[in-house]
Amino acid sequence: MFKRIILGVSLLAGLNSFAAADAAKEYMQRKKVIVNTAKAELCFADDAQCYPVLIGKTTPKGTFDMQLMKTSKPGYGGEIIGFKQEKDFLFALHRVWTLKPSERRMQRIASNVVSDRVITNGCINVTDKVYDKLRQYFVLEVI
């Protein structure tokens, strides 16, 4: 939907459809986040701000489109940002899942020890502050 809005604004501004598509693609590439699994860290490419994240040993590497999705499953705050579907499992960015207190996920995400932040089933957990910012981004690169 956002692509259509950017494309429409560009066309109204007098750009041809090819130029508008290029402008939309360039904008979306700037709105990229990079997750470094070796550091268990997420960085926003446009402002270089980095934050600790929780990851899993199975967190997939690659470049993915991010898709905001509603969920009624408990513990996710009503929505997630999906990035890769594999059979019956959806890899997603979402708020820290805290329904199993013994996992101490909020303490782990605050830890400076990377191995403490490797705990998920493959999803990428972020703080509420980071999640709110992520909603404005389109591309995820996991390295």
Q: Can you give a write-up of this model?
A:
The chain has 143 residues and is an alpha+beta fold. 26% of the residues lie in helices and 29% in strands. It has helices at residues 2-12, 17-30, 105-109, 128-134, and strands at residues 32-36, 41-44, 50-52, 62-65, 67-70, 79-86, 89-95, 124-126, 139-142. The chain has a five-stranded mixed beta sheet with strand order 3-2-1-9-4. The two termini are 27 Å apart. The model has no long low-confidence stretch (mean pLDDT 88).
What is the element layout, followed by pairings?
Blueprint: H1 2-12, H2 17-30, E1 32-36, E2 41-44, E3 50-52, E4 62-65, E5 67-70, E6 79-86, E7 89-95, H3 105-109, E8 124-126, H4 128-134, E9 139-142
Parallel strand pairs: 1-9, 7-8
Antiparallel strand pairs: 1-2, 2-3, 4-9, 5-6, 6-7
Helix pairs in contact: 1-2
Summarize this entry quickly.
Helix content is 26%, strand content 29%.
Descriptors:
globular; alpha+beta; single chain; 143 residues; four-stranded mixed beta sheet
